[in-house]
Amino acid sequence: MKQKSMVLLGVGTALGAALARWQMARFFAEQPEYEVEDRLGPLEIRHYDRVVRAETTVEAQTWEDALQEGFRRLASYIFGANRPRELALSELELQGDQATPQPTRAQKIAMTAPVNVRTERHTLSNLASEHAAQAPHSDEKFTVTFTMPKERSTGSLPVPEDTRVRLRSVPPRRVAVLRYSGRHDARRVAEKARQLLEAVDRAGLPTRGEPEFAGYDPPTTLPWLRRNEVWIELGRPTAP
Question: What angle do CA 200, 203, 206 make, to 5 degrees?
């Protein structure tokens, strides 16, 4: 009886650990390092060093469709739909001679957090305007982004097989961040983006560009355990 109880206890502990890892996956994924410069009410002002991003732009009718398709493309890239950069260059050089390309040697790249999303034609804060909560703009473009591990550079990363995936070096920048939990549907993201813009305006902070969404957890994470953020890049303060 005692042995059976010990077995059940061991199974329960293992299941509990697996459940915790499943629900708190972001704690096991690399995140870009940043320095907190200040806190202004609900805002956190951060400084990020240079990072390399893999990104893809999706034209979609809904926020959810854009997230799903963008994530699929980028996940395919980091899980092996790629070729070493030196191999891709050698194939280009050999094309003129009609030489047989070498076998591909795919690389796997570690998953990181968060996944960032920005809109290209309309501001994020208008996603759920009027009657368009589920389909904000039929012609909207969304850019979905994965940050690459910090030891990787554009020169060391493999070339994506999907030409819709591109690599981009993002210079150091300061961002204002509003953090929240719960769902990240179009209406919720738009509401938080508006709150971010209002808080930044009250603080008198100059901004650059439009807000972007940052999601740290997979869709399977329970809403109240999720870490969601909206960011906006800050410009240089104007001289008094």
Answer: 60
